[in-house]
Amino acid sequence: MERKRRWKYRLIKALRYTNKLTSWQKFASRVGYMGAGFVIAGQWTINPIFFIMGFVCVIVQTSSRKQWNLVALNINGLIAWIIHLINGI
User: Fold this and answer.
1) How far apart are CA 32 and CA 29, in angstroms?
2) Share of the chain residues as helix, strand and coil, in percent rounded to the nearest 5
3) pTM of the predicted model, to two decimals?
4) For 75, which of 22, 32, 49, 63 is 20 to 30 Å away at the CA?
5) Best CA proximity match to 32, nearest among 67, 76, 83
6) Of 84, 27, 2, 4, whose CA–CA distance to 51 is shortest?
7) Pair 35, 55: CB distance under 8 Å
8) How far apart are CA 58 and CA 38, in angstroms?
9) Among 51, 33, 34, which residue's Cα sits nearest to residue 42?
10) Close Cβ partners of 3 (under 8 Å, ≥ 6 residues apart)
């Protein structure tokens, strides 16, 4: 019985995915959460400044994780809200 348990434990340990974040990635995750909060605040107030700050913060998080498709998507949103801010003044 003990031998069977060791075998299962070794198999699970070999298949387990461990993601060790660096201190920069931990910081970037916190900045990304703050950015998500800014985007939510922007949706309630329709204030372009909140959207711009939110997209900048989320770009920091996604670029630290090398999620380039999300970086491109957020840059697109950032440009759109900057144009909206410029045209609204």
Assistant:
1) 5
2) 85, 0, 15
3) 0.75
4) 22
5) 67
6) 84
7) yes
8) 10
9) 51
10) none
Q: Longest C-alpha distance within the chain, in Å?
A: 74
Burial of 3 (0-12, 13-18, 19+ CB in 10 A): exposed
pLDDT digits (tens, 9 = 90+) for 11-70: 777 777 777 888 898 999 999 999 999 999 999 999 999 999 999 999 999 999 899 999
Q: For residue 16, give Cα distances in angstroms to 10, 19, 66.
A: 10, 10, 22
Q: Return d(Cα 87, Cα 38) in angstroms, integer.
A: 21
Give the pair of three-digit tokens for residue 67: 């999620």
The answer to whether 38 and 54 have CB atoms below 8 angstroms apart is yes
* 74 touches 60 (CB < 8 A): no
How far apart, in whole angstroms, are the C-alpha atoms of residue 50 and residue 25?
23
